[in-house]
Design a protein that fits this description.
The complex is a heterodimer of chains A (330) and B (738). Chain A is of the alpha+beta class and 330 residues long. Chain A contains 12 helices and 12 strands. The relative contact order of chain A is 0.13. In chain B, helix 5 (211-222) packs across helix 6. The longest helix of chain B has 25 residues, at 509-533. Chain B is globular, with a radius of gyration of 27 Å. Chain B starts with 13 loop residues before the first helix and ends in a 15-residue tail after the last helix. Classes of the chains: A alpha+beta (330), B alpha+beta (738).
């Protein structure tokens, strides 16, 4: 681990300024991903600005939904009554991830910032454009069973590994950010993460020094018909092979609104407009769900070892939609 | 009636372990300690062209950096058959760090950074820069099976009967290939050592399964007498075979301490463990079974290939039990290795047996389906009471009872034969079974008993306790035969100051060291009897050693509690503060007249999501016949642990190598999966006790390795039953079932 300076963030403004003036500094919140990566010499900041004590942990009602503090812990968020009652999909997604201990340390803002679990990213002896631009992508023609089937480039085939964000994409979340200039700005969640393109070192569209301060969720009618399905190699404490955040709003037997977001298939949570289009206005039947699943995976471009994700993704979408229709029952 | 044997005893070291008082190797406090951090190679084969340590040496706290360029050279090789650049020592071919600029595997140690703190050493290690002259490496056996060789042709097994011909003409045949990837031990405790020198005397705190192995390795490494080396290893946080052979870090640590003249601590990172202590080899196996239509096996052929390193020949003993587990007149087994540019494999829990029985027991299931005979029935049809190779009868073999009891507990009779025929709601249900087998080994082992006049005893042997409960079982056996309360017996292990014992491996510790304690207690009893009989008033006149026992602090005539002497009083009368016996127990020649072994039957239920194909092991019943159970509590714990290992091997575990670089890509517990609590549902372990005094005087057979032997096959067979899909390549992950 590179030696670093520890700076206590006293308030949002000074914390942001501390990071803005030092290109090699980073915010520290729960630290559950950043510290691991520093030990592996993957992340090498020379300064950590600790924001964990800032008063940004509230979860509260707003005029149009709820607002979740960036520093609320994942565990507290998943178990908060407002989240459980109105956004059970978010609760399910968070609880599908990590372990109890990690969820009690990890923050919501940090969860959005977590980095890929690509093995080549983790090993500094291996090529990785995300870690070290210009060195190549080790996974493109290497071991890529857990990698992307959508939106990858020849520079990077890594996936966004998390669970929470998949639900946030389905729930039209808006991320509130304290800008480098001291002004607040909002980023619709679908514009938060980015595809790798030619700059895979950039996971998201935050500027250096911008601080996530909260996540807003608008009201919706999905609470009774949503489901988070996570398929993984073991029953707990594993990242998804494929996950699906599914939410439906029905009008009698017809689907009025739908959300289908696939996780662990791309550099960002993969909201499938094609699947949603195939669902809206159609009867909520297995035939409709199957058509949506086919539509969602139609454009998939698997790599050498992850072809299974195409079939698994289809099956997971159908299963998640069926369970969403059943009010979450298996 | 035994007071302790066969009764549940909680771990005598349990409180020390959960309160942190038990000291593991890297936890000892040694003044003036320096910290070492290992730098590893980034190529798999070739040579180091340059090593630049300039920047690293300038980093804060750095004391010194050892590389092949400044590493004190070992003595020249005494034999030309060994590569001197790896190891100049003839007796011990294990890999030594920093011996030359040659690279034999990826993540090979190339430097050791020594600093005042661990953090300083770790940071400076990142600043060491190496360049290489790489060569093309080979790191898998797939595609290179034709390069396989037999290292010791003279020791290769000969066919029994005429297997090739019989197989060709058999009315029913199965021929199938099975592969198992490299798997790692992944004990909780990372390997580490603290070493310091006092003149020519070396002391090392080390994580090991055998302190005497480390002593010999270090004595030969430094060309000093063995008595100059003290190895201390009182607690081990799991090892599973990874600390049986000499690993490279103890000699490296000791050398560093010698060079900088300070105590040095070196601990592997989790990642460094993946190339620092061996692994279960990359294995390909082919099983050919020929049978009559009634299910009788007529031919059994088992070919096995595994990877080794380029500098040591390691054969995975996969075929060890193939020739003896079923009655089959014609059998042949062969083992070959492929030399690869990886570190040398090592024993991993149930080495060879679990790999071989995975292949054989899956093949037996395939044969059962070909014959349309119930898989359990097929095993019974081919049951043998004698070793088919030698014709010797088993000293005991309660396997039939294991099958019967397991089937009954499991409800096997309700199994529907056809694959995909059982459901639980939408879930596919599969029931599978397999046979487990392991040896009933005993090795020479020594113990020292000091019986004290205050009514306590100190018992010591240089064995290890890597987790099975050795402290507890030895305390229990000593208390039983010295007639003392267990709280008055202190048992110590893991130190070369104690009498020699074998490594803790092969599931032979309790049989070996337990026998030594039993026999030594008998010697103590004899000495006490002689002492008592010196007294004219002795109540034991005419009594033979077999007629008396030690119980409740008394030496007394069996079945006549009125004739006794108080042992403490007897010792005080003779001015004895302690009565010492040092004894070595050896396997009895009687064993040679018999075949010996431990056996078990495993029944497993899986439930599989028909869409996602995620497999859950919902029920496992393991029935084991391994002699007499000393401590049911720790014994059941061993068996449950074995089932959990089997679940991991069947469904999750695989070390992944990018063969373009010859580099392990998942050397951490994030990417390498082992079962978590949520993967382990109902596990029931049952013992069928055998009273077998031929194997050893206490009737003990090993169980730690046996416990996992049949599990991977039973799970794979259950997966077939649930889905109709036969997966012959472990692990069975969801993608393989889609």
């Amino acid at each position: 681990m590179r030696p670093f300076k520890y700076t206590e963030g006293k308030d949002e403004t000074s914390a942001v300024r501390a990071v803005v003036v030092n290109r090699e500094s980073k915010f520290l919140a729960g630290g559950t991903n950043l510290i691991d990566l520093m030990k592996e010499y993957v992340e090498r900041p020379n300064e950590l600005v600790d924001v964990s004590q800032l008063p940004l942990a509230q979860i509260k009602n707003t005029s149009n939904g709820i607002s979740i503090g960036a520093l609320a812990k994942n565990g507290a968020t998943a178990n908060h009554p407002l989240v459980r009652q109105n956004y059970p999909l978010l609760s399910m997604a968070i609880l599908a991830g990590a372990s109890g201990q990690l969820r009690n340390m990890a923050t919501n803002g940090g969860n959005l910032m977590q980095r890929t679990r690509c093995q080549y990213f983790y090993d500094i002896a291996m090529p990785c454009n995300k870690r070290e631009p210009g060195t190549g992508c080790g996974a493109l023609e290497g071991i890529n069973r857990i990698h992307a089937i959508f939106g990858w480039s020849d520079k990077c085939v890594a996936t966004y590994p998390g669970d929470m964000a998949n639900a946030l994409y389905a729930l039209d979340a808006v991320v509130r950010v304290k800008g480098a200039n001291g002004q607040e700005r909002t980023i619709p969640i679908q514009d938060f993460h980015r595809l790798p393109g030619n700059e895979p070192q950039k996971d998201n569209n935050l500027e250096h020094g911008e601080l996530i301060i909260g996540i807003d969720l608008p009201k919706n009618n999905f609470a009774n018909k949503s489901y988070y399905l996570k398929v993984r190699d073991r029953a707990s404490y594993a990242f998804a092979l494929v996950s699906v955040a599914a939410a439906l709003e029905t009008d009698g037997s017809n689907i009025r609104q739908a959300r289908v977001v696939l996780g662990s298939v791309a550099h960002k949570p993969w909201r499938s407009g094609e699947a949603e289009k195939a669902l809206v206005g159609k009867p909520a039947t297995d035939a409709t769900f199957n058509a949506a699943a086919e539509a969602a995976l139609k454009e998939a471009k698997p790599l050498a070892h992850n072809g299974y994700k195409v079939e698994l993704g289809k099956r997971a979408i159908v299963l998640a939609l069926q369970r969403a229709m059943n009010g979450g029952a298996e | 009636m035994p007071k302790y044997i066969g009764k549940e005893m909680s771990r005598v070291d349990g409180v020390a372990k959960v309160t942190g008082k038990a000291k593991y190797a890297a936890e000892f406090k040694v003044p003036n300690l320096a910290y070492g951090f290992i730098v590893t190679s980034t190529i798999a084969k070739g040579a180091i062209k340059s090593l630049d340590t300039t920047e690293a040496r300038r980093a804060p706290g750095v004391i010194d950096i050892l590389t092949h360029e400044n590493y004190p050279k070992p003595a020249p090789p005494a034999s030309t058959e060994l590569k001197p650049e790896i190891n100049a020592n003839v007796r011990d071919k294990s890999f030594r760090a920093l011996a030359s600029n040659q690279i034999f595997f990826n993540m090979q140690p190339i430097a050791l950074v020594l600093a005042e703190t661990f953090e300083q050493a770790r940071y400076a290690a990142r600043l060491v820069k190496a360049t290489y002259t790489p060569e093309k490496q080979l790191t898998e056996i797939a595609g290179s099976l034709d390069k396989a060789l037999v290292p010791n042709p003279e020791r290769a097994a000969k066919p029994r009967g005429n297997p090739a011909e019989t197989f060709k003409s058999a009315p029913v045949k199965i021929e199938a290939e099975y592969t198992i990837p490299i798997e790692h031990h992944n004990p909780m405790e990372p390997h580490g050592a603290i070493a310091f020198w006092e003149g020519e005397k070396l002391t090392i705190f080390d994580k090991t399964q055998g302190v005497y192995v480390v002593r010999r390795h270090l004595a030969t490494s430094f060309n000093i007498p063995e008595v100059n080396v003290s190895v201390v290893s009182p607690f081990v946080g799991g090892a599973f075979g990874s600390s049986l052979r000499p690993n490279y870090y103890p000699a490296l640590t000791a050398m560093a301490a010698r060079v900088i003249k300070r105590p040095v601590k070196v601990v592997y990172t989790r990642t460094q463990m993946y190339t620092g202590h061996g692994y279960r080899s990359d294995t390909w196996q082919k099983i050919s079974l020929g049978a009559e239509r009634n299910g009788k096996l007529t031919a059994l052929i088992h070919d096995s290939r595994n990877n080794s390193s380029t500098f040591e020949d390691w054969l995975e003993n996969t075929t060890n039990y193939t020739r003896t587990i079923y009655a089959c007149p014609n059998a042949h087994t062969s083992q070959q290795l492929v030399r690869t540019d990886l570190s040398t494999p090592a024993p991993v829990r149930a080495p060879g047996a679990v790999s071989g029985m995975f292949a054989l027991e899956c093949a037996m299931d395939e044969l059962a389906y070909e014959l349309k005979i119930d898989p359990l029935e097929l095993r019974l049809i081919n049951f043998t009471d004698v070793n088919p190779d030698t014709g010797k009868p088993y000293s005991s073999k309660a396997l039939r009872e294991c099958y019967r009891m397991g089937a009954e507990k499991f409800g096997w009779k309700d199994r529907k034969f056809e694959p995909r025929s059982m459901r639980d709601g939408r879930l596919l249900v599969g029931w599978g079974m397999a046979t487990g087998v392991w040896g009933a080994f005993q090795q020479a082992a020594s113990v020292r008993i000091a019986l004290k006049s205050d009514g306590s005893a100190h018992v010591a042997s240089a064995t290890a306790d890597i987790g099975p409960g050795t402290y507890t079982v030895m305390t229990l056996i000593a208390a039983e035969y010295l007639g003392l309360p267990a709280e008055r017996v202190k048992f110590e292990l893991g130190d070369t100051k104690f009498p020699r014992a074998p490594v803790q491996g092969g599931s032979f510790t309790t049989a070996s060291v337990g026998s030594a304690i039993y026999e030594s207690a008998q010697n103590i009893r004899r000495k006490l009897l002689e002492m008592a009989n010196k007294d004219a008033a002795s109540p034991f006149k005419e009594a033979k050693i077999e007629d008396v026992e030690m119980t409740d602090g008394k030496l007394q005539v069996k079945n006549d509690p009125s004739r006794f002497v108080n042992i403490s009083e007897l010792m005080r009368r003779n001015n004895l503060e302690e009565l010492v016996d040092v004894h070595e127990a050896k396997p009895s020649p009687e064993r040679e007249k018999y075949a010996t072994g431990a056996h078990g039957a495993q029944f497993v239920e899986v439930k599989i999501d028909p869409d996602t194909r995620v497999v859950r092991v919902t029920r496992a019943i393991e029935v084991t016949a391994c002699g007499r159970i000393m401590n049911p509590k720790t014994s059941h714990s061993q068996e449950i642990g074995g089932v959990v290992w089997g679940i991991g091997m069947a469904l999750q575990e695989a070390t992944e190598i990018d063969h373009r670089y010859g580099r392990i890509m998942n050397p951490n517990l994030q990417h390498y999966h082992v079962p978590v609590n949520a993967d382990v549902l109902n596990v029931e372990t049952i013992f069928v006790e055998e009273d077998d005094r031929i194997v050893n005087p206490l009737g003990i057979k090993g169980m730690g390795e046996l416990s996992m032997v049949g599990i991977p096959a039973a799970i794979a067979n259950a997966v077939f039953h649930a889905t109709g899909k036969r997966v012959r390549n472990l692990p069975i992950t969801p993608d393989k079932l889609l």
